[in-house]
């Protein structure tokens, strides 16, 4: 029998969740591994119970009724329907709580505040020298536990970097705490996991796990004002200020100090633009500026479809120089 | 007219009481943990001890009801005997049986409600 095409497509769509960047089976974080340790026994147990129930059902339907059935039936109901589920549910509750306790009790070496906005992420690193502002990309040192302070400024969002750890809601007026302890370097995907409005599905971020030394150097660079080479691009900078970009975006070292949108001081050092949507490239940046709402329907940033090509060149060059 | 005591013979209230005890215990545990953590946000120990005391009280109350229920049912297990008649005695047995099963269920539920407060040291 041939399987209809749409079923194949549905199955392939399901497999997309196994992509390593977003897979909680990637083993990229100590917390994700704790969850994985919980998952396999749960899965094996569920399969065993399901199989046993099916076997019992088949036997019950196929055999001829006998006089002793009443007594056996009662015993099965008492033990299989009462005592066993109670024990299994209690065991699941206790193992689940043990996992939660193990995930919550790690002392942290670094604190990062993540504020969810419609539809991007404000990221603030706490350092001894003060706060370091960034957006849409979270960098973490390998092997160190980072405490994430999660909150929201508008509606309920949910923070989830599946390869690294659990998922936690970000609730306006509350700060939820979560730790991540990466154990594999690389770029991992993250997303908003609570429907939060039109561009919810395009509200993504990247988690970049770096060697501790490289992370320290990066954090120092991130705390600096914009690169002097970018600031020397007077035409691009003045366009950035005159077109109104500065009303929402900050570029430290210039007059641009808007707080409504993501901080762009080191935009070109990030891997992606548009809150994890497009890879950072000259072409994608042009597309983002001119067709913003096509790329991300619902986005608060206006499109600039009528920007003259020369201006677009200048402004893109300026942004690509913000390393 | 004389009103029956809440769990008097023949009253259906005996089947309401065990779930009610569970519900009150659940609410109290939730309130204690929520208020304590909102005010202190540190050690959970004092809140945990209050929840443990409440749990013991709830379990004692449920077991007392369970004893009354078992007496009416005529024991803890009576396999093969049904209470299907429509006499006062059948009704008494049936309610006793239902109340007894509810006591077991709610005792388990009360313990499960209390487990998290025992396992976590901090809010």
TrEMBL record, chain A:
Its main location: membrane. Gene3D superfamilies: Cupredoxins - blue copper proteins. It is found in: Membrane. The chain crosses the membrane at residues 38-61, 73-98. Pfam families: COX2, Cytochrom_C. InterPro entries: CcO_II (IPR045187), CcO_II-like_C (IPR002429), Copper_CuA (IPR001505), Cupredoxin (IPR008972), Cyt_c-like_dom (IPR009056), Cyt_c-like_dom_sf (IPR036909), Cyt_c_oxidase_su2 (IPR014222). It catalyses: 4 Fe(II)-[cytochrome c] + O2 + 8 H(+)(in) = 4 Fe(III)-[cytochrome c] + 2 H2O + 4 H(+)(out). Residues 231-323 form the Cytochrome c domain. It is a multi-pass membrane protein. Residues 107-221 form the Cytochrome oxidase subunit II copper A binding domain. Keywords: Copper, Electron transport, Heme, Iron, Membrane, Metal-binding, Respiratory chain, Transmembrane, Transmembrane helix, Transport. Subunits I and II form the functional core of the enzyme complex. Electrons originating in cytochrome c are transferred via heme a and Cu(A) to the binuclear center formed by heme a3 and Cu(B). Belongs to the cytochrome c oxidase subunit 2 family. This is Cytochrome aa3 subunit 2.
From TrEMBL, chain B:
Keywords: Membrane, Transmembrane, Transmembrane helix. The keyword Transmembrane applies. It comes from the Bacteria. The keyword Membrane applies. The chain crosses the membrane at residues 12-36, 48-73, 94-115. This is Transmembrane protein.
